Amino acid sequence: MPAMPDSDPVDTWFAPAARSDAAALGRQSQLFIGRNLATALLEALSEPSALLNSHRQVIHANGAFLKLAGREHVAEILGLRPGEILQCVHVDAGPAGCGTSQSCATCGAVFSILEGQKGGHANSVCRLHCHTPFGSEAFDFRVATESLEHAGERFVLFRLENITDEKRRQSLERLFFHDVLNLVGAIRGFTELLRDYRLEDREELHELLLQASHQLVDQVQGQRLLLKAERGELELKPQRLWLQTFLKDLVAIYRHHPVVQPVEVRVLPLAEDLALMTDPGLLSRVLGNLVLNACEAVGAGGQVTVGCDVGSERIRIWVENAGEIPTPVQAKIFTESVSTKGRGRGLGTYSVRLFCDYLGGRAFFASGAGLTRFSIELPAA
User: Fold this and answer.
1) What is the DSSP secondary structure assignment for residue 88, as one 8-state letter?
2) Helix residue ranges, H only, the chain
3) Is 156 helix (H, G, I), strand (E, B) or coil?
4) Cβ contact 287:348 at 8 Å
5) Of 159, 221, 301, 367, which shows the fewest CB atoms inside 10 Å?
6) What are the residues facing 198 on neighbouring strands?
7) Which of 116, 166, 163 is nearest to 144 (CA)?
8) Per-residue pLDDT band at 359 (split at 50, 70, 90)
9) Across residues 288-301, what is the average pLDDT?
């Protein structure tokens, strides 16, 4: 709980705040100057590794760690803590830097370091949100620490393994099954209706079933494209599509999905249909997830609106529903880990941003005054 204005300021919310002074840092760094067994073993490690003192400050690091930090010499990071070197967004929130903010209490890296200081070893997985030239980005690391003694002093060997790509691949696999199950649900709804549909109306239902089947095949093919993206081989296949027709067809495909059936989904008409050059498969995944999420949010009897705002250079497509997203959830809405709908369900909004990046667009949302609107912006054709 934050201190009251008239209270003494706290020096930390989690790990100890104390640091070694410049003289102590200089003396400790001298222990690793030159070619000795400790520095040779550290440099032999392939993963980014550093030696930390009792105050969690870097005393020495190998080449892989310096490369990860974007530095050339150990002197540039001497005395800093890991989160400060990697530009963790929570550093400034703590009264004494890395390890001292309230968010640090759930940080796997800090936990492993503290465990290592007790004389043993520890392993954890840590997600760091770091400042980058492109804004705040999340990176996943596997962290390992080991207590060791050198020249009569005790240090912690701190090792990192960047598993961001591995985590991303796992998320993409879950996204694939998430989206495929959405379409399978729609197809099941169509086939159940076939048993009771009036004979003269079956042609329309057959057409919707065919469209959904094609969409399912597109999703499978889309997964293959995403796997290529992980290897840097993704080639989008943009096609010219008519936006009004595309939106109506998309809503029609999902209309018989169990989540959508009890909800009124309407597409606001454009003054005139507009041509858009984009990859229809990825765009379908983006908008399909937004429609399903909105329908889940409003529930039976609710209303969801799909609209489009056209500019000279950008086209904005949006999905709006009644209700607001809780404030604590909003900050994490586009990460794959957040979910207000149960285990494995927080992937829809993550996929929206992921695929918008591929399409050369951006995704954002606004939630307030009793409404929530998710929007995507794409380059105009």
Assistant:
1) B
2) 22-30, 37-44, 63-69, 82-85, 108-117, 164-194, 202-230, 243-254, 280-298, 327-330, 348-358
3) strand
4) no
5) 301
6) none
7) 116
8) confident
9) 91
- Contact, 380 vs 308, CB < 8 A? no
The domain ranges of the chain are 22-162, 166-379
- pLDDT at 6 > cutoff 50: no
Angle at 271 between CA 265 and CA 273, to 5 degrees: 80
Amino acid at 343: R
CATH class of 166-379: alpha beta
Nearest-angstrom CA–CA distance, 55 and 10: 18
- The CA distance from 216 to 225, in Å, is 14
At CA 170, angle to CA 65 and CA 164, rounded to 5? 15
CB-based contacts of 128: which residues, under 8 Å, 6+ apart?
A: 83, 86, 88, 107, 109, 138, 139, 141
The alpha carbon dihedral of 93, 94, 98, 102 has a sign of: negative
For 83, phi and psi rounded to 5 degrees? Answer: -65, -30
* Residues 152, 158: Cα–Cα separation, whole Å: 19
DSSP state of 43: H
Q: pTM for this structure? A: 0.59
**Largest distance between two CA atoms of the chain:** 89
Q: Which of the four CATH numbers 3.30.450.20, 2.60.120.40, 3.40.50.1110, 2.40.37.10 does domain 22-162 have?
A: 3.30.450.20
Amino acid at 121: H
Across 36-40, 198-202, 248-252, which has the greatest mean pLDDT?
248-252
User: Is residue 291 predicted with pLDDT exceeding 90?
Assistant: yes
Contact 103, 93 (CB under 8 A): yes
Q: Which of 9, 94, 89 is nearest to 56 (CA)?
A: 94
The β-bridge partners of 149 are 154
Distance CA 336, CA 130 (A): 16
What is the rounded distance in angstroms from the CA atom of residue 103 to the CA atom of residue 99?
Answer: 8
By the 8 A CB rule, do 287 and 375 touch?
A: no
Q: What confidence tens digit (pLDDT) does each residue in 362-373 have?
A: 999 999 999 999
Cβ(283)–Cβ(356) below 8 Å? no
Lowest mean pLDDT among 205-209, 257-261, 278-282: 205-209
